[in-house]
Task: structure prediction
Amino acid sequence: MNQTTNLKKLSDYVAEFLANVGIRHVFIISGGASIHLLHSLARRTDIQPICPHHEQAAAMSADGYARATGGLGCAIGTSGPGATNLITGIAGAWFDSVPVIFITGQVATYRMRGDTGVRQMGFQETDILSMVASITKYSAQIRKTEDVAFELEKAAHIAVTGRPGPVLLDIPDDLQRQMIEPDSLRHFAPAPAPTAVNARLDFDIDKVLELARDAERPVVVLGWGIRLANADHLARDVMLSLGFPVLTSWGAKDIIEEANPLLVGTFGTHGVRAGNFAIQNADLIIAVGARLSTHETGTPMKSWARGAKVVVVDIDAAELGKFEKFGKPLTMAIQADARVFLCRLKDRLSTWRRPALNEWRARIADWRARYPAVRLAPPTRNVDPYAFMTALANAMSHNENVFVDTGASVAWLMQAFPTKLGQRLFHDFNNTAMGWALPAAIGGCLALGARPVTCISGDGSLMMNLQELATLQRHNLPVRLFIINNQGYGMVQQTQEQWLGGEYVGTSYEGGLGFPNFVALAESFGLPTMSIETKDQVPEKLRAAYRASGPVVIDVKVPRTERVTPQARFGYPIEDADPLLPREEFFSNMLVQPEPKSREPLV
Ligand SMILES: Cc1ncc(C[n+]2csc(CCOP(=O)(O)OP(=O)(O)O)c2C)c(N)n1
Ligand SMILES: [Mg+2]
Result:
């Protein structure tokens, strides 16, 4: 073979690389600086370009795609606005440690501003690298064609190793068009993985078991890190052997099924009362793969787990280091991958005898019974969002994938959705960008081979990526999109009630927000629709929605006055959530000293 026959266009090389790392769908929007990549992708049979209507949605679809498979996702935008539009989606992948390769087109090298000091030279030239430096694990511009293999390999490696996360490569237009000699490219050789992951780990596990033996009120906290380490089965196994009550962060709610006798529930500012009473009265907390943000601990952090020895296992040293800085020093900080930790712990548990903990278990059972997430239905015809989340769980398949947006919907779901083993709950947990769920559900659905998925979005959130109804229709994807329609930003209205006298500025129609007729809107996109207006309609309409084989948009009317309860108000410890319980009842639930705030008269 002579040299010329071996030449390959650089953009074809990029497309081939993406296919070789297992990516089957790339979310891409065309533009002067991305068009060669788009055409190279379109020529392949093993990878399909999907074209959303906003780069933000492209980024979120790639994120949902990666979450659903546990592998890499990819989104591509053109230079300038195409690149900057990706940013919110990149941030979501960064904060939740999701491995996505982002590629941006860039102006040709000979049009770059270089060190001239001007803002822009080439048309749509933008320095995207500096903008995403703080929300990517690695970002680089390919400046020479010889570097393309090296940079792609390096970026993909970094995205998936250690604590995963997004990476971005910026590829100038003139390089994309060039013919390259693949055999002559330089390659990336990752440093060999360290063999002794943590020499102290066995020693640390012995100490954890010593603490466990002495504990009277222990709990385990599981987090999203368990998923990232692909250790959900292992975690359930280990929990069974250990026998401690289990709490989950939102990211791990789907790891322990509702029927599991060890499950207490979620905790934190939007957690359930049983979960918060358990964690705030525990004397030992072992947290694995949960970074414990202020959403989980409340503020100040020292108001969290006041009576407990706290052991945290995290792959990221910075996450372990933060506790001391926020006034909550840990009893033990163990830097380890969740899977490695659980594997070693499992070995040690062969001689472990599950403690009875009868009194502690009885207390937790009592909290769960007295404070159920779904309250008695009020005597109205309206849809109760809590009861709706339970009905939804029962209507969907045992292995449904659910993508939920921010606002009250996610809080209602996390409090009241009784997860079955095999069901998955996806959310933009830490960036919580409005508009994430629909594009993420599209990405997830494609990743799972066009398997039906559920998408739940508030009316306000959907408005931020509404244009993706067209993508749904174009690919006829079986996404059941439930719009939890309360004609406003319910979640923010609740905050306005707590702090700003209940004036709904910018959060209701009267406060300046306009909303469409969602049924008419979805129909204009050519999508089948349904609407649920009263609670009597729920069972039948849900059955119909889950019988549909293609996309369906269901407008669920929920009263504007529905709120997230319980919810800890800023300044209160998480166990003392709104609506505040009568003090006598509250104190009877506390084994640990209540905070001074909780002793003040009720407001
Ligand atoms: C991009 C973005 N902007 C603003 C916010 C702040 N925010 C959080 S929830 C919310 C309201 C969401 O409204 P909707 O989707 O209708 O949900 P609801 O609370 O009404 O159930 C807002 C404005 C956000 N999370 N993301
Ligand atoms: Mg709303």
